[in-house]
Amino acid sequence: MKELTTYEGALCANCQAELQGEYCHHCGQSVHSVVRPVHGLFEEFFETFLHIDGRILHTIPALFLKPGFLTLEYFSGRRVRYIAPFRLMFVLCLLSFFVLHLATDVIAHRVQQRHQNVVQVDLDDDNFSHAQTAQEVQHQLDRKLETLEATRAIGNASIVTQVDQAEKKLREKANARLTELGAPASASSAKAPPAPSEAEAERPIEPLHLKGLPDFANDRFNEFRKHLIQNIETLNNGDAAHRQEALDHITTGMFGALPGTMLVLVPVFALLLKLFYLFKRRLYMEHLIVSLHSHAFLFVSLLLIVVVGMLSTWLKPYAAWAGYGIGALQAPLILWVPAYLLIMQKRVYRQGWAITSVKYWFIGWFYFLLLILALVIAAVLGLAH
């Protein structure tokens, strides 16, 4: 009653309805003015943050550990304690793909580090003093140059520079040994693939005009097609530095397109549920809620699997037992995904295990094919980046 009497006689500034609390029961506007001291804004921010944080603590554990629980709570009308399904799925989608992109960059960095180690080994082990004949010197030189060329082909610009320096030093050492043996200096070696000429790189691509499309759509299509052709030609014929640059563009474009393509699968998966549970007489919106929570679980599972893998890789050089122990958690996390989705489908739609398993099998295969299609589309969009 204290809350009701506090605003007795006060009117809402927006709709003039009589206030009965801090928010107007007619239009929902707050009684508090937005014109306030700066410290008031900070107080409101932290209050909102703590409120959202409280909902996260109620939502994420239930989402990951209790199949179907959040969906049934939402259907029952108990929604205020949890994050809204679409917001939950969208945030987890972006976060999981961001971490996956980060993990990909870490792996690429480790690969480049291994290439650098290969170059360094060839620099450190370039002693030809054990060779007793010119043929042995030539054989040892060719073998080392083949290793360097393999590194050059998949390295970035920095690696290519190191390979060139290593090749120069190897040749100097080999020629010095040949001189000691009284043999002529050698010039044969594995050659780097020629870089595309400037004329080839700037070769014009004839635009296409699709009838029925407006000019802006044709322009966008031709730009997409141009980038696609250029990236494919660079991957096939470019030098190491240009191939690495093209791969970076493709990877960035693919990870930029993945969240959008995955979002398209959410309503499609809901449509599959609608078709397979047609006689349950549920609204499409109910199936959409199931789809949103299912995808939110998939994204949080992907996030955990990637984080566990990164943590395991980071720990192995320092504490192998801890690294392998944490890495072993990936298997149960992966196995939990299909088990969770099956249990969720059983609890939400309340059918027997036999019919649920059959529907789960067919829905899973249809969705898997759609997922492959989405990944292919994301890869193509990455090529056209």
Verbal overview:
The chain is mostly helical. Among the domains are: 1-35; 69-113 and 198-383, no CATH class. Helix content is 73%, strand content 0%. The protein contains 13 helices and no strands. Helix 5 (134-154) packs antiparallel against helix 6 (157-180), helix 10 (284-315) packs antiparallel against helix 11 and helix 12 (330-349) packs across helix 13 (353-383). The longest helix has 40 residues, at 85-124. The chain is elongated and about 110 Å long. The model is unreliable at 1-5 and 187-201 (pLDDT under 50). Keywords: Membrane, Transmembrane, Transmembrane helix. Residues 181-201 are annotated as: Disordered. The chain crosses the membrane at residues 88-108, 253-276, 296-315, 321-343, 364-384.
Number of helices: 13
**Average pLDDT score:** 76
Helix content: over 70%
Order of helices and strands: HHHHHHHHHHHHH
* Alpha-beta content class: mainly alpha
The count of DSSP E runs of length 2 or more, i.e. the number of strands, is: 0
- Global Rg: 31 Å
Categorize the overall geometry.
Answer: elongated
Assembly state of the chains shown = single chain
Q: Give the termini separation.
A: 62 Å
Low-confidence stretches: 1-5, 187-201
Query: How would you sum up the major sheet?
Result: none
What share of the residues does DSSP label as strand, in percent? under 5%
InterPro entries: DUF3667
Keywords: Membrane, Transmembrane, Transmembrane helix
Biased composition (Low complexity): 183-192
Transmembrane segments: 88-108, 253-276, 296-315, 321-343, 364-384
